[in-house]
Design a protein that fits this description.
With 236 residues, the protein is α/β, with parallel strands linked by helices. The strands form two sheets. It has a six-stranded mixed β-sheet with strand order 5-6-7-3-8-9, sandwiched between helices. A hairpin with a 2-residue loop joins strand 1 and strand 2. Helix 7 packs parallel to helix 8. The longest helix has 18 residues. The chain starts with 5 loop residues before the first strand and ends with a helix. The chain binds adenosine-5'-diphosphate (ADP). Keywords: ATP-binding, Nucleotide-binding, Transport. InterPro entries: AAA+_ATPase (IPR003593), ABC_transporter-like_ATP-bd (IPR003439), Metal_Ion_Import_ABC (IPR050153), P-loop_NTPase (IPR027417). Belongs to the ABC transporter superfamily.
Amino acid sequence: MSQPLLKCEHVDFGYENYDVVKDVSLEICQGDYLCIVGENGSGKSTLMKGLLGLLKPTGGSLMVSDDLKRSGIGYLPQQTPAQKDFPATVQEVVISGCLGKRGNRPFYSKKERETAAVNMERLGITDLRKSCYRDLSGGQKQRTLIARALCATDRLLILDEPITGLDPSTTQDFYRVIRHLNREEQVAVLMVSHDIQNIVVQANKILHLKQSVLFYGSVEDYKQTECGREFLGGGK
Ligand code: ADP
């Protein structure tokens, strides 16, 4: 069993004087596909920010493996209208995923340009590299943002509500791309999503959050629990 990339033990995260997420324990290993589900306001985004290192734990411990510290986390944020209109080419958006590693150098290195090219190829968007990002279809935009996230790392991808606004066929395309990266290339995936019907097909682990953890374990076990059956039945 490989060492976890990320491990939380009884961790709390919150803002100012109050904790929003309490007593969360989870681990993400290479090859895992973990989905975080829960009603609106249950603390999913807060937990995500904590795992990304944007919030300090107010209790418990958060362990990040040396491997992940070196390679970083690839983050796919929720798409905002401003991002959708971003006036840059596909190539520019993808290579901007290397920014975290660039430090103060004013130009991208040859290695970074190669990394961007490899990831555009991986996502099948090489032909679009000179196209303007804002002119792309929803699915092409999503592939561009995944390629960008992979420039930061190919160890762990964190995705926040990634299928919001995508049509059904683009959604299936998105899941195929992520599943390929996860199964064939062993990229660990951590996804916040409401799309429970697809999650139970795609993921291997589920964490159901309602401030604290209602369930954490395998998808198969989740389907047998009362909260799993209720959530699956309700579709949300
Ligand atoms: P979810 O992603 O499940 O919808 P959030 O983590 O966004 O849940 O929100 C959980 C709670 O944390 C909410 O009550 C929300 O008002 C509060 N919250 C979220 N962001 C902040 C913030 N920046 N400052 C203070 N409270 C916040």
